[in-house]
Each structure stands twice: as C-alpha cells, then as structure tokens.
C-alpha cells in the first residue's frame, strides 16, 4: 500500500513572507475522498494577507484535510494528505 | 433549461468546489478564450486582480490589452464600454463598489440602458457591468449598499444577483453571451475572500465545462410548504439558516432565490404562494419603493386569493450606518428572518 | 517666511498625525491576526492610513482659521488633525462609539466636525464640489473665509474634479484644490492612469494658477499653500496645488501591496518629512529637548484620545433610525414594515420622532 503524500505548507510558502510563520487556511475546494490531479488547486491559504493557492503535489485521493477551513497553522505544518493513485 | 438540469446532475457529481469569485473568473476566462471581442476593464483589475478577486489571474493569461486597468473615471470608462459594445465588442466593465454609480449614472441609465430602445432596436449594447454590493463589514453609507432596486427599476438593464458559485458561473456565461446590457451584482460577503469570510453556503460544486443559467428562472433553494421566503444574494443564505433553525419546530419554509431581478420569475413566486399562502420577502436594499414592494405587488396581482399574510424585511430607509450595533440593527439578520417566518406561521 | 512657532506647530501636528496612524494600525489589527478579517476587531471596515502624507495637511491647514472650510477624501486623518478636528471625538467615531463625531454613523472615511468646518467624502474627488459651495457661500456673504478641497492624485481624472475647477474659476471663488500625489491609485501607478506627471498642469485648462511642490518638505508646502490661500482670501480666485507625499502603508489596511515594487515601498519609507522638519527646527535654534517634548506631548494626546475612545459606549441599536432628517417627518417611512419585527418597531417609531 502506498503511503500518503503530505501537502506541506512550507513548500508553497510565498518567497516574500520569509519572516512570517503563521498562515490561515481560507478555503478548501475539495473534500476528503475527492480525486485530485497533480498541480490542481485544492485550496487557498493566506499568509500576511496574501492569498496563495494550495496545489496537489500528486495525482490521487484526498485522505485528510488536516487543517480545517478557517484554521490557523505554522509554516511547515502539513495541511492535507493525499493517497497517490496507483 | 434542459442544459441546466444536465449541468446540475454533473455538478453534484464533481468533486471540485469553488468560491464564488473563482467561479466567476472561470466563466470570464472561458468566454475570453472563445471570443476575442470580450475584454475586461476597471480599476485595479489587472495586477491587483480586482479588489474583491473578480479578475484574479486573468492578467497573466490575457495580458493588459484585454484585462485593462483604467483611471478612476467611471463616466469615461463605463461610457466607453457602451460605445465599444455598440461597435460590436463584448466589454465587461467593473464598477468597484456599486455605491460609486453616482458619478457615472448617466452613462448607465441614459446610454447603456436606453440606447437599444431609443434606436428602435437598431443598436444593441452587449456589455456586462460587474459590481460589488452589500454590507456586513462596517464600511458605512458610501460603501455598503446593494442598490438592487435602483438598477432593476430603470428599464433596459438585465440585473443578475448570484448567491452561489454554481449560479455565479452559469449566470456569468449567460451575461457575457447576452445581447443586452447586464448588471452583474456580486455580494462581497459571498465571494470567498480570505479577508472577508463567507458563510458556508456560496461555495458549491462547479462543473469545469461551460454552462449557462437562463435569466428569469428563480431557484428554489429549499422546498417547503408553510411559508414562502423570497430573497436574493447574501440573504439567501441567511434565509436558509433561518429555515433550518425552524425545522425542529415543525415549520417548513420554502426559500426562493430570485437570481435575476430583470427578468423576474413571477411564476415561481406565485406557485409557491399558492401553496403556502404566506409570503416573506427579504432584501438587503432599502425597503421603500424597492424589491420587497415589487415582489409583494406581483404576488397580490397574481395570487391575491391565496395570500393570507405578507411581511417584508429590508434596510429600513436609513443610510447604512458604520458602527457594528447600528449596521447589525438595520441589515436583516438570520434571527429576524426566523422570527418573521415564525410570526407568519402562527 | 515661516516663523519658528509655525514650524513648531506643523511639527507637532505631523508627529501627532504619524503616531495616530501607527497607533490606529495597532488597534485595527486587534482581532485580525493571523487571519485578517476586515469585519473583526474593535475597528472594523476599511481603514485608509495617511502615514507619509503629514506635510500636506500641516503645511496647508496652518494657514486656515476655524471658519475656513476643508473637505477631505477617504484618507482624512492627517488633514483632520491639522484642521483642529476634535481628536477624542474623531477617535471615538473611528471606534464606532456613541460619543464619536457622528455618533458612530460615519466611521473613518466620513468625519464631520462643524466646529471647524470639516467634512469628508469617501467617494473619489467628490469633496471638491462641496468645497466650491463653501467658497460660494463665503463670497455671497462677503466674508474672507476660504475653502480647501484635498484629493488624491488618482482623483484628478474624475469629472467632479474638472467641473469643480471650472465652476470655481468662472465664478472666481476663494477655494484651493490640493492634490496629494502619493504616486498610486490603489494598485495603479500614476503614469499608467494619468496623462500628466505634474497634476497641477490640470489648471492650464482653466484661468487659475497651478503649482506643484515636488517634495514633502513641509516648509515648501507651507509656502506654496500660503500663496494660494492668501490669493483666495484676497478675492483673487482659486488655485490648484499638487504636493508630493508618500504612501508608507498600503492603500487600506489589509492591502498586501503585492503589485508594488519593494524598492518603491522602501523609498517611500526612507523619505521622512517629519525628520526633515525636526532638522529645520534645530536650524532655527530649537533644542532637541524641546523637540522631544513636543513629540512626547503629541504621543500623550494620541494615547489619551485612543484610551478615551475605547471607554466610550457603543450606540444603542435604536439610534440607527435617528438623524436621517434634521426635521423628521411625523411618521417614519418604515412604519408598519421592517419595524414590525421585535423591538425594532418601538425604536423606529421613537427614533423617527426625535
């Protein structure tokens, strides 16, 4: 069984917000169980008032939305998990 | 209509949910790819992507000739949209806040809205005027109005007010393809902005392909038998919340989302009123001489014998105040809607 | 020639205005971090701060009396402070309190203080026509009062601005139009939306002089504004002034300024008209101790106003129905409608009668 791939907030952190560590999950566009394609926009996070798209790192199925919509997180936190399609 | 029901089925099957702003942008982008004559102009619509994210990402794909920042000169650029439309293009012009219509109303209601008629139909004005409406975030009297009734009152404009992402996309496709001027009024609170959180309702599944929602078809967002609630925009969601609160008490409200004011789907309202006999109209515009009065008049004209009681909730003819307790007082709340439904039911 | 006392006054107004914006920024962000929600916290709604604009308000308003009229745009705090608007009541208004200038009905973009003839419009350039009207009233009444309309550089492409210039010009009215050029109309750089680099050239189409102050040097603003206001007061008609300022904060709080080059932001922050004015004071023999004292006094006044404002009561919801008219009609227009539900009905009826 393949392992879940983390959607890592640090990997999509905006370059001009290096001095900030707090983020806010503004929107999810998928639910747990949704099929996603690599590169697809699955959510929207906000750092320093700037919105950044959260994209799927792989094809697969969303197994967990770790940070709920409206939730806060720290840079490096996993915000979602995706089970890669075989 | 057949197309729409097909789309609804597909929509329920899609995994993807969008915010209203993203759904709007998707429709605009699709139309711009299909038709070189479509372009978008407004203040802060290029690099900024629209103050309310109405054009996010479009500059990257279409460039500054088709996603065009313009000076703070609403008379000039809204009037220019009229001229470009009369020349056969399909401009979309954004009025940043509907409250700003005051500086440019002549172009809107004397040119855009009337030129088709005054030319005896020899001119048409196939443009879309997009504009942000609504309050609930304490921005006071010059930045919080909806003015739904003002635009619907003046003949010659089609007036669209989406309340969900699904509707926003379909209505935007229809607006751009329409040969008449369409005023597309999007509520800031429904756009899914990170900095102005939406209620949960407006984010819906949205098919990736294009689809249209015909104007003049209200949508029954909740079916019920006891009381008819007719509303639009943000208050669709407040009415749905109120209706679900009342479920436990055995009150079964029907919530009708008008979706377009011009044309207005009178039949759907009358059908519902014939069933329930009780009508509540909820509007975020000023009460007098507006949407609530019009809906009640149509109900009275078409189904007077079936009507036992009517009520309306709207902004009580005061400018929108700034302070939170004052704005909360005048903007019909979920609780006030629930109380009004309850009173009608008793 | 500017006097040392005038330098002191301008300095005090400018440090008051700067510190005011810094403190409001802090208060505004309460309840809005890390998730920025515009409707949360003690100051909701949009907030347009004027840090970097201080030289304009201070350098112009120092020439004005209480009976002179000023209209300000959506970014009004520094102008209000320089015009002598009651700081406590203004702050209470921004916090949406009952004892605010407008009892919580107007908010920060709509500050009104009749005691010093100060008013705002949150709509671009729409403070210009009322300023022309104030000047018209002064002329008709044969007083020597003048009016000043402040507007941003983005506003000089608006019809209301051009129409005001013409009306003021053709009737030779005592009004001065002050363009605060901060180079940006929200995200749109001036060169992309305005056909002239010097906004005072707009005067060329009318029979009025135009003058640009190419820096935010308060003394240079003082001198140019002095000429224009004296001209108006002497019955010689309107003037169009443009003064260079800097937008040190975003267009509004919450504006991440992603569109704005980092170099432009840092450039705006480097130039500090307040520091420059402090140097002028020193050159006039004012000791550092006294400069510090002025600054501390200004800070205390701001802190006191904010502390006072936060203690003020919020308006009662029933007050929403008051002040629609000066002479309210005997019967509220909402009678029998909206007012039917809950406690609102009494409030509407009572409020309408007051």
Describe the structure.
Chain B: GO terms for molecular function: oxidoreductase activity. Chain B: Its cofactor is thiamine diphosphate. Chain B: Keywords: Oxidoreductase, Thiamine pyrophosphate. The complex is a heterotrimer of chains A (86), B (346) and C (354). Chain A has 86 residues and is mostly beta strands. Chain A is built from no helices and 8 strands. In chain A, the strands form 2 sheets. Chain A has a 4-stranded antiparallel sheet with strand order 1-8-6-3, with no helix packed on it. A 4-stranded antiparallel sheet of chain A has the order 5-4-2-7, with no helix packed on it. The model of chain A has no long low-confidence stretch (mean pLDDT 90). Residues 1-12 of chain B have low confidence and may be disordered. Chain B is globular, with a radius of gyration of 19 Å. With 346 residues, chain B is of the alpha/beta class. In chain B, the strands form 3 sheets. Chain B has a 7-stranded mixed sheet, sandwiched between helices. By secondary structure, chain C is an alpha/beta fold. Chain C has 2 domains: 4-311, Thiamin diphosphate (ThDP)-binding fold, Pyr/PP domains (Rossmann fold, 3-Layer(aba) Sandwich), CATH 3.40.50.970; 317-353, no CATH class. In chain C, the strands form 2 sheets. Chain C has a 6-stranded parallel sheet, sandwiched between helices. A two-stranded antiparallel ribbon of chain C has the order 5-6. Residues 335-354 of chain C have low confidence and may be disordered. At the B-C interface, helix 4, strand 14, helix 12 and helix 13 of B face helix 12 of C.
Quick structural summary:
The complex is a heterotrimer of chains A (86), B (346) and C (354). With 86 residues, chain A is mainly beta.
Features:
heterotrimer; A: OB fold (Dihydrolipoamide Acetyltransferase, E2P); 4-stranded antiparallel β-sheet; 8 strands; 49% strand; B: 346 residues; alpha/beta; Rossmann fold; 7-stranded mixed β-sheet; 5-stranded mixed β-sheet; globular; thiamine pyrophosphate (chain B)
Number of strands of chain A: 8
Helix content of chain A: under 10%
Q: What is the CATH topology descriptor of chain A? A: OB fold (Dihydrolipoamide Acetyltransferase, E2P)
Q: Spans of chain C of 5+ residues with little confidence (pLDDT < 50)?
A: 335-354
Our Rg estimate of chain C from Cα atoms comes to: 21 Å
The spatial strand order of the largest sheet of chain A comes to 1-8-6-3
Determine the CATH topology of the largest domain in chain C: Rossmann fold
Number of strands of chain C: 8
User: Which structural category do the helix and sheet elements of chain A fall into?
Assistant: mainly beta
Q: What's the helix-strand series of chain A? A: EEEEEEEE
Helix content of chain C: 40-55%
Strand content of chain A: over 45%
Kindly report the oligomeric state of this protein. Answer: heterotrimer
Mean pLDDT of chain C: 92
From the spread of the alpha carbons, the general shape of chain C counts as globular
Give the class-level CATH name of chain A: Mainly Beta
Q: Helical stretch count of chain C?
A: 12
Strand neighbour order, sheet with most strands of chain C: 2-1-3-4-8-7
Domain Lipoyl-binding (chain A): 4-83
InterPro entries (chain A): 2-oxoA_DH_lipoyl-BS (IPR003016), Biotin_lipoyl (IPR000089), Single_hybrid_motif (IPR011053)
Keywords (chain A): Lipoyl
Pfam family, one (chain A): Biotin_lipoyl
């Amino acid at each position: 069984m393949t392992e879940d791939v983390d959607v890592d907030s640090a990997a999509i952190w905006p370059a001009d917000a290096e001095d900030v560590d707090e983020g806010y999950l503004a929107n999810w566009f998928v639910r747990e169980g949704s099929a996603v394609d690599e590169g697809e926009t699955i959510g929207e996070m906000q750092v320093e008032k700037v919105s950044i798209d959260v994209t799927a790192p792989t094809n697969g199925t969303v197994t967990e939305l770790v940070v709920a919509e409206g939730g806060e997180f720290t840079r490096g936190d996993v915000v979602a998990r995706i089970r890669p399609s075989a | 209509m057949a197309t729409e029901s097909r789309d609804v089925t597909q929509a329920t099957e899609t995994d993807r949910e969008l915010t209203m702003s993203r759904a709007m942008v998707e429709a605009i982008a699709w139309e711009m790819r299909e038709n070189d004559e479509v372009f978008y102009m407004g203040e802060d619509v290029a690099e900024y992507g629209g103050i309310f994210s109405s054009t996010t990402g479009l500059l990257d794909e279409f460039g500054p000739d088709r996603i065009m920042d313009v000076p703070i000169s609403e008379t000039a650029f809204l009037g220019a949209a009229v001229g470009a439309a009369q020349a056969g293009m399909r401009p979309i012009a954004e009025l940043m806040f509907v409250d700003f219509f005051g500086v440019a109303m002549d172009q809107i209601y004397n040119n855009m809205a009337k030129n088709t008629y005054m030319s005896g139909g020899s001119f048409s004005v196939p443009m879309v005027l997009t504009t942000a409406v609504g309050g609930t975030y304490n921005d006071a009297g010059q930045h919080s109005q909806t003015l739904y009734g003002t635009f619907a009152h003046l003949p010659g404009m089609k007036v669209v007010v989406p309340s969900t992402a699904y509707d926003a996309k379909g209505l935007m496709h229809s607006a751009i393809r329409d040969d008449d001027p369409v005023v597309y009024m999007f509520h800031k609170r429904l756009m899914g902005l990170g900095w102005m959180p939406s209620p949960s309702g407006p984010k819906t599944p949205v098919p990736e392909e294009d689809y249209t929602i015909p104007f003049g078809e209200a949508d029954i967002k909740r079916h019920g038998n006891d009381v008819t609630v007719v509303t639009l925009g943000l208050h669709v969601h407040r009415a749905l919340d109120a209706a679900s609160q009342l479920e436990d008490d055995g009150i079964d409200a029907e919530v009708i989302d008008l979706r377009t004011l011009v044309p207005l789907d009178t039949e759907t309202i009358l059908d519902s009123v014939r069933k329930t006999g009780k009508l509540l109209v909820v509007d975020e515009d000023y009460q007098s001489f507006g949407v609530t009065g019009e809906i009640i008049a149509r109900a009275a004209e078409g189904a007077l014998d079936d009507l036992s009681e009517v009520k309306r909730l709207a902004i009580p003819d005061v400018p929108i105040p700034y302070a939170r307790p004052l704005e909360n007082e005048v903007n019909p709340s979920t609780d006030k809607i629930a109380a009004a439904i309850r009173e009608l039911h008793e | 020639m500017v006097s040392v006392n005038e330098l002191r006054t301008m300095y005090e107004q400018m440090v008051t205005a700067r510190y005011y914006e810094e403190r409001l920024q802090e208060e505004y962000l309460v309840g809005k971090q890390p998730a920025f929600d515009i409707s949360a916290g003690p100051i909701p709604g949009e907030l347009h701060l004027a840090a970097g604009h201080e030289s304009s308000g201070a350098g112009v308003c120092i020439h004005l009396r209480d009976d002179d009229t000023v209209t300000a745009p959506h970014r009004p705090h520094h102008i209000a402070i320089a015009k002598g608007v009651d700081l406590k009541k203004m702050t209470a208004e921004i916090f949406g309190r009952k004892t605010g200038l407008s009892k919580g009905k107007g908010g920060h973009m709509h500050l009104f203080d009749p005691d010093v003839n100060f008013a705002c419009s949150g709509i671009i350039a729409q403070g210009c026509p009322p300023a022309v009207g104030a000047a018209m009233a002064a002329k008709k009444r044969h007083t020597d009062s003048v009016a000043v309309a402040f507007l941003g550089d983005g506003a000089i492409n608006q019809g209301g601005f051009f129409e005001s210039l013409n009306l003021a010009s053709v009737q030779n009215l005592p009004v001065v139009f002050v363009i605060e050029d901060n180079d940006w109309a929200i995200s749109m750089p001036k060169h992309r939306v305005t056909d002239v680099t010097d906004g005072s050239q707009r005067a060329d189409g009318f029979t009025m002089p135009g003058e640009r102050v190419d820096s935010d040097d308060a003394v240079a603003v003082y001198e140019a504004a002095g000429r224009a206001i004296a001209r108006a007061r002497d019955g010689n008609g309107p003037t169009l002034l443009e003064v260079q300022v800097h937008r040190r904060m975003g267009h509004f709080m919450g504006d991440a300024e992603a569109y704005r080059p980092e170099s432009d932001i840092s450039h705006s922050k480097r130039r500090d008209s307040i520091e420059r004015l402090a140097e002028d004071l020193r050159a006039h023999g004012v000791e550092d101790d006294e400069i510090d004292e002025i600054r501390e006094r200004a800070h205390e006044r701001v802190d006191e106003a904010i502390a006072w404002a936060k203690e003020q009561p919020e308006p009662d919801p029933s007050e929403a129905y008051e002040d629609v008219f000066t002479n309210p009609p005997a019967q509220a227009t909402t009678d029998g409608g909206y007012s039917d539900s809950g406690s609102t009905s009494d409030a509407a009826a009572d409020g309408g009668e007051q």
